[in-house]
Give the backbone structure.
Amino acid sequence: MNILVFLFMLELGIMPDNVIMGYDSAIPERFEKIGYYATLESGLMIYDLLYVKGMIRTEMQKENHALNFVPNLSFYGIEAGLKYKIFSAGIRRLCAHPVIPYVYKTLDKPNFDTSYSEIFIRIESP
């Protein structure tokens, strides 16, 4: 039995059919259609039973005719739960925040700004 284990995950990916909506019409035209994302997650497992972890996911767009990427949307989350063999149960708190209006300092209102909680039971292979 492990007393304390550090958990870490990095995921990188593309979103082939990403669409930016809800902004001034000039904003979506500045970006390529394909989207990209990066997710970073870390946490602690205590006595192989209790875990706590946090995550951040940032979605980004590549600007047309430029080498840089611009963050589009950020997700933040925290999760705590119990895990025993193939079973786990816990609570997760998530929020999402648009970034484009702040990057370009536009007067556009963000398309959405949301937060929610999930209480879950999960069965997964070992």
